[in-house]
C-alpha cells in the first residue's frame, strides 16, 4: 500500500483544498488516480486514515525492533511505512542491565561477607574482653 500523504508531500491533517491542490499537481497518473479515489472522498479518507495510522504504528514497531527492508526494497512502495532502525537501548535492556549490576554487587558482598563477619565478631569479642578485663582490674584495685 502506498503512503499517499508521503507520496504527495502532505500532512495527514491536510485540508481538502491542500489535498485537491496536491492531487491536481501530481505528475504520476496512477498515484493521482489513487489519491483522487481515496483522499477526496470523506468516507474513503477516514478508512484510509485509520489504516494509515495502524501501518505507521507497525513501521515504528519494526524500527524499534531493528527490522527494515532490504536494499532492493528501499525505493519501492513496500517501504513507504518503514523507518530507519532505532538503535536506542530499549527499556527492557536498560532494566536487565540494572538488575545484572545489582546482582553482581550482591554476589560480591556475599563473597566477602564471611571473612568480614568473622573479623567483626573477633574484634567485638576482643573489645568486650578488654572492657571486662579493665573493669575487673579496676574493681580489684579499688577493693
From TrEMBL:
Domain of life: Bacteria
Keywords carried by this UniProt record: Membrane, Transmembrane, Transmembrane helix
Transmembrane region(s): 116-140
Transmembrane helix keyword on record: yes
Keyword Transmembrane: yes
Protein name: Uncharacterized protein
Organism of this sequence: Vreelandella arcis
